Structure formats: C-alpha cells, structure tokens
Amino acid sequence: MIGTIAGWYWVIFAVVSVTIVVLMTRYGDGMEDAVLDSQMGGSSRWVVMVLGIIVPAAYLRLHLAAGGTRDTLVAGMLRGGLVGGLLIGLVTAVYLIGERALFDAVGQTWTRQFGPPADGWAGIGLTVLTEACVVATYFLVGAGVAAGFRRFGFVGGTLWTPVALVPAALVDLATHTGVTALLTGLERLPGGAGGVLLALGGGAVAVLLAAWLLRLLLRAVSLRPSL
C-alpha cells in the first residue's frame, strides 16, 4: 500500500516538475536548484506519515482478533515501512536522474542542496537507502502519534506527540532533508564521508527508535480509546 500510493504521488510530482522546469526556462529566469529541493528533499514522507496514522489504528483490532500479537504488528509495520521505503527510494533515485537530464537538456545547471550526494551508482544506492530510512521512520512515527492518542487520550496524546516526532527529527538531520535540517541549517551538518556515515547510521537509529517507541505504546494501548 505504501509503495502504490507513493508511486502515484511520484508520477504526479514528476509531471508537475517537468512542467515547472520547462515553463521557468522558457518564460522565467531558469532554475537555481533542483525541483526536489523546494520540497526540502522530498515530501513523500508526509504521505506515508498520514498512512501511518490511519492504517495501523484500523488494523489493530483485526490483527489481535486473528491471533496476532502487538509485537508482531510492530514487526510487520517495520518490515512494511522498510520495503515501501526501498521502493520509494528507488523511484526517488530514478526521478533525480531524470530531473538532472532534463536540466541538462534545457541548458540549466542542476544543483541539489538537500539530501545525500546523488552522483554515480554509489549516490543512487545511498539515495535508495536513506529514503528507505526516512519513509520507514515517518510511517512508524505516524503510527506512534495515533497510538499516543489511543493510549493517553486527547490531552496526553497532544503532549506525547513531540516525543513521538523525535525519530522524524533525527532522520531529517541524518539525511540532510526535511524541516529539521532546514531549521538547523544544512551548512552546520557534516558532509563528505562523515555525512554518508551519519545518513546511514543515523537513519538506521531513527528507524529503530521509532519502532521501539511504537512498541512501548502498543503494548499498553486499550482497544477502546481513551477520551
């Protein structure tokens, strides 16, 4: 489900991006940065976060009624987030290659401020892996936000939300994307080999942290939400 919805998102985004580049080249002053930079490295994270809020909450009762456990639900969500993330990461890498080719075709210089380097096969692989971490983290964070409201009620869930968002902020910083990286300042984040290690290591830590927080909540969530 994650891969299908995000796939359609990227198809629409690609069509819009091509239109923007062509129109800005023909009627405007051209493009200074990659179109994806206007989304701070990609907005598919918000799509999967919404899915994380909606889908797991709907499946909790069905999963338990079918004989599953809360831990297996978290494990399944983790696997689903990673698989969906890998697919979205692959689409993102293909999109970046196409966007760069389009810039070259219309005589524009392609530069990218957000995200890891995307040059060569290593860059493509890094893009796929880091985007997988982003997608999996945001999916689990969305589920954690929803679980917080089920566990603590409206007031407690509202207070819990900033805690649930910590893994999202961490993966933003690690991958040099998202709102947190923008607010921190990309120039303050490490580049080069250190940046690559941060992207992979920090991304993995963010995924595991999001899964751990969700597991803590789901083990105590009542099937009847609190008010």
Automatic annotation (TrEMBL):
Keywords linked to the UniProt accession: Membrane, Transmembrane, Transmembrane helix
Superkingdom, natural source: Bacteria
Residue intervals passing through the bilayer: 7-26, 46-64, 76-98, 118-140, 152-171, 191-214
The name this protein goes by in its record: Uncharacterized protein
Source species of the chain: Promicromonospora citrea
